[in-house]
């Protein structure tokens, strides 16, 4: 991510913070390079288990040039897809967690390596989010692909 791209991504992210300057300060001084930001203002986050999240991201990137931001936790065991605000309140899905209005998420500084939570698809600063209907279709396609794979060494 270029310097100006990272700056616009930072500005987009901190725009939801109660105190944007404090958020920037936290990113600079936190040894993990992360800050807590409220969900539900400019975006919600749908959190998928890594086993489904990674193939879903693969399908999604085949469908659109620029999906919305995607976070991964330490070890990539969970992926968080940034979707429009209000999505979580209406989402029904087994095994999918959501962060919406009234919740906070750990967000790493865009364009900077961290040891834990990290961006798989960093925000571009334009406000691009993943369309929930497209995400759902990508999840179904990914789940179908997983169901076709042999389990536990079966042939």
Strand order of the largest sheet: 5-2-4-3-7
Q: What is the helical fraction, as a range of percent?
A: 25-40%
List how many beta strands DSSP finds: 7
Strand share of the residues? 15-25%
| CA-atom Rg in angstroms | 16 Å
Kindly state the mean pLDDT as a whole number? 89
Topology order in helix (H) and strand (E) letters: HHEEHEEHEEEH
Based on Cα principal axes, name the global outline: globular
Secondary structural class: alpha+beta
Largest sheet: 5 strands, antiparallel
* Amino- and carboxy-terminal Cα gap: 42 Å
Number of structural domains = 1
Low-confidence stretches: none
Task: Describe, in plain words, how this protein is organized in 3D.
- By secondary structure, the chain is of the alpha+beta class.
- The protein has one domain (3-148).
- The chain is built from five helices and seven strands; from the N terminus they run ααββαββαβββα.
- The strands form two sheets. The protein has a five-stranded antiparallel β-sheet. It has a two-stranded antiparallel sheet with strand order 1-6.
- A hairpin with a 5-residue loop joins strand 3 and strand 4 (78-83).
- The radius of gyration is 16 Å and the shape is globular.
From the structure above, extract its key features:
alpha+beta; 5-stranded antiparallel sheet; 155 residues; 5 helices
